[in-house]
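Hey Z.,

So I finally got round to the N-oxalylglycine thing we talked about over coffee. Here's the setup:
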Amino acid sequence: METAPFQFTCSTTPLSLPPNFILPEDKRPHISQVSTLNSIPIIDLNDQIHASENGDFPSLLVEKISRACEEYGFFQIINHGVPQELCNKMMTVSTHFFELPFEQKKQFFTTDFTKQVKLFNYYLNTHGQEKVNTWSQSFSHPGHPIEDLSHLLPENPPQYREVFGEYAKEIGALMNRLLSLISQSLGLEKECLLKRLGENPSLKLQANYYPPCPEPELTLGLGSHTDVDALTILCQSEGVSGLQVIKNGKWVAVDPVPNAFVINLGDQIQVLSNGRYKSVQHRAVTNKVKRISLAMFYGPSMDAVIGPIQELVDEAHPPVYRNYRFAELREEFDRQRGTRRMVKEVFELPKN
Ligand code: OGA
Ligand code: NI
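And the result:
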């Protein structure tokens, strides 16, 4: 049995931050310098319906997505069609799961990142120092094909399997719709990205629980990273902000918008778009009150060949990356575990 870090065993909030969570000065969030202005765009997916009624093309919606992807790599969507009640239920079962006594969830706790279903803590490797834990717990597992994996998921809370099954189906459908819009926003045919990502794509959940933190200025919930897959749909709890993204070298807070999802592009779309769209660095800070987020990641088939899409390569835009099998990139990702990852960079072609 792995030894459980502090948060898994402690049910009350300590008055001060335990030492193994305190980041060195230069790694702390410097919350007072974070901007809440100029946050990421909010896009209404109902614009699509209006556009098709008018027969407009390229639709305003596609243009908005194109601009958001180029300028931020992040946007929020409203009127996305996923029932709010289902999102609330998914939040509730996830919260229940995280708040179970450790005894009842320890079967999922592991430091082995190759496990499909895992409850774990993130940490940062800091220069010349012991690794520092971040103030969060994450629970991760596959979401597709749901029929084959349901039995691996928690039995407690009792609604977990059913609610997650429904949530995964809805999010899967929304992923397809977004991939089609993003393809169009790159001037490609609708099916292009979906096809390039292959016939056995992965859909994974990562639920993140950030317990109430006594000293949010000394630690992080999740360190700065990019998402390695193709596309992420994130649902965050209302009323508490924590997600921050880099814009022009500065951190910008993404405050929760009611009934919205946060969408961001992952590394594989950066590569497929030949660098036109960026997979942007982001992180989560903690608060005096708890916060929960549910990230769903859509990734390529292991055997999909990923590389710049031909139509996006020309003399003015020579290929930035070489082609690779996605399995190759995953191996590189595993090799770099625990470091400040530079995974897609390994597949960059030399500049002429
Ligand atoms: C992630 C992530 C941000 C958040 O799970 O990859 O970036 O707000 N989460 O929890
Ligand atoms: Ni992320």
